[in-house]
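Need Phosphotransferase's 3D structure for a figure. Predict it.
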Amino acid sequence: MSVAATTSPAVGTLYVSRFPTSRGMPRVTMALRSNVVSVGSILTKLQKDCATPFPVIRHVADSMTADMRAGLAVDGGSNLKMILSYVDSLPSGNEKGLFYALDLGGTNFRALRVQLGGKEDRVVATEFEQLSIPQELMFGTSEELFDFIASTLAGFAEKESEKFHLPHGRQREIGFTFSFPVKQTSIDSGILMKWTKGFAVSGTAGRDVVACLNEAMERQGVDMRVSALVNDTVGTLAGARYWDDDVLVAVILGTGTNACYVERTDCIPKLQGPKSSSGRTIINTEWGAFSDGIPLTVFDRDMDAASINPGEQIFEKTISGMYLGEIARRALVTMAEEGSLFGMAVPNKLSTPFALRTPDICAMQQDNSDDLQAVGSILHDVAGVESSLSERRIVLEVCDAIVRRGGRLAGAGIVGILQKMEQDSKGTIFNKRTVVAMDGGLYEHYPQYRSYLQDAVTELLGSETSKNIVIEHSKDGSGIGAALLAATNSKYDHDF
Ligand code: BGC
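Structure prediction for Phosphotransferase:
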């Protein structure tokens, strides 16, 4: 699809919108246009600035590998924190009993319980409750956030049905999925390094998040114990591995993004003290902080500058669900301001940060109709925009450029991890079936993103090798995975 350049109006004029307001009166907007540029040239520049041809994705994959090594050598050795998860053994399938999981990660908070029945019966029963996290809690105090978690857990635990059995005299155990950068100090403790994904809760950074939860559970009268603290990637890896022994990497592509993988302990120079008996451990890369060689546009730079963590999480800001819609919105606002896309006035709604969400651009990209009717109504509903067919086409091109870059960079990141593993253990990754377990709403719901990701993996690995790499959605892996890790790390005798 190509878009012809449009001409712009004169500079410094009082514009009267050609679209009526809901009351039928013309909307009047003062818009002083200093830089008169055509929509076509803004689009061309956007496409050029965020292009990811082969040399770019090759560079990103290689830099990812190099940064992983630097982060494994010494703490602070690279942007990638390469956090030791203290998960040295993955679920075997023999786990039995009742376990809980809590999942605090992005948009939602989830509490879950599972009755595990061992090799034969596997997952006997599950129940869960999911709530969206109230906006004000994302900017409140640590006590408020953890009290919310503990009180939701208390309410959920009260509804435990007779399908679940806890042996007499035992405390209920929890796998706590906490999806932010945490420096683990053991399997059941870890210090929050910083918030990501728009969270700015005061008083948690620098504290042990399990202690925060324990204090809140005490305040709320909940008698449970956290036996495993895990990142969502680690939970996903454990959950997927429960069903498939070939799973070695897990990636989250949702509100935020991250990846973890199974590493050999002799490849971790910074690992001091006793090594795990399995000779393996899971490393949480925190790849959202990666930044080397990422093609950025002016819209990315502006969004980053306006964020609560400028200069940080650059990979996350170019590939994850929290940001793709916002980058597109910023591009469209510039096109409206400087090139009169959508007419003479810049629609107010479109000027609101984060008004256009990633699910909106995803829904627009699924519109195959001739007149792009769904694109038109989404633009109208979320951005207050009346659009012509050619304007809708431009919007789709903007979305596609951003989503294509996101998917391809994510694919390059995955190849970076796989090639690091392959270099250290020749032939054990690329010459056999290796599974990358994927989770997160962006990956699950965005077909174009998924196929751009797969394209980049195939381009980088070649069609033969990439047949061995299975990139697979692992629905709800992280919840059950955390409960499984609570079982593996239970303080009670394992009868498995
Ligand atoms: C966090 C990670 C998390 C990822 C996906 C990132 O913002 O730093 O810890 O795994 O989001 O939820």
